[in-house]
Amino acid sequence: MPKPMIEDLPYPDLSALTIDCKNAQIIMPAYADTESEMTAVLQYIFQSVNFDVAGNSRFATALEEIAIAEMKHLDLLGEALLRMGVSPMYVRRPPNKCDYYATCNVNYATRPAAMIAADITAETEAIRTYEQMLCKITNPVLGALISRILLDERMHLKAFKDMYCEIVAAPN
After folding, report:
1. Residue 25: which of 76, 95, 79 has the closest Cα?
2. Helix, strand, or coil here: 109?
3. Beta bridge partners of 100
4. Secondary structure of residue 140 in the 3-state scheme
5. What whole-number distance in Å separates Cα of residue 149 and Cα of residue 147?
6. Which residues, 6+ apart, have CB-to-CB distance to 153 below 8 Å?
7. Exposed / middle / buried, residue 64 (Cβ in 10 Å: 0-12, 13-18, 19+)
8. Cα-based distances in Å from 132 to 8, 13, 71, 116, 147
C-alpha cells in the first residue's frame, strides 16, 4: 500500500485539547463540508482509479498517496473535534445532525487535465481556508495542528501543479 504524501515532520499531540466548542466550530468545515478533507479523500481516490484504469499508474499512485494524507488529516481533525466536545459526524454544521455530508461535493471529471485542474482549485481553496482558520483559532495546540496540515496541503498543491504541467505538455 502506498505511503501518504506528507512532509517528514510530526503532527502535534492533541491530548491536551479540552472542551472548546468555539474552536471546534472553526475547524468543522475542514472536516466534512463542501471543500473538506472528506471531499478530498473521495475525489482523489475516484481520480486514482480513473488514472489506473487508463494506464497511468504513476499519477494513480500519486493521487492515492495524497488521498491517504488527506485521510490522516481527516483522522486528526476528527480526534481534535471529539476532544473539544463535538462529535465528528459527517455533517456540515454540527449539532445540526440532518445536514449530512453529500458525495455531490466530489468533482467527477474524467479528463486528466480537468481532474488535476479541479485538484489545484481544491488545494488552493483548502490552503486559503486553513490560513483563515489560523487567524481565528485561539487554542495553540489546534493552531499547531492546522499549521502542520498546511505544510502537507502546500506539498499537494505543488504535486498537482507539476502533474498538470506534465499533462498539458504531453502530445495528444
Report:
1. 95
2. coil
3. 91
4. helix
5. 6
6. 123, 126, 127, 130
7. buried
8. 24, 22, 21, 24, 11
For the chain, 172 residues long, give each residue's pLDDT as a single digit of tens: 789 999 999 999 999 999 999 999 999 999 998 889 999 999 999 999 999 999 999 999 999 999 999 999 999 999 999 999 999 988 876 666 677 888 889 999 999 999 999 999 999 999 999 999 999 999 999 999 999 999 999 999 999 999 999 999 987 6
Task: Cell 481544491: give the residue.
Answer: 122
Q: Do residues 97 and 159 make contact, with C-beta atoms less than 8 angstroms apart?
A: no
- 3-state class of 88 per DSSP? coil
Residue closest to 89 by CA, chosen among 36, 145, 142, 15: 36
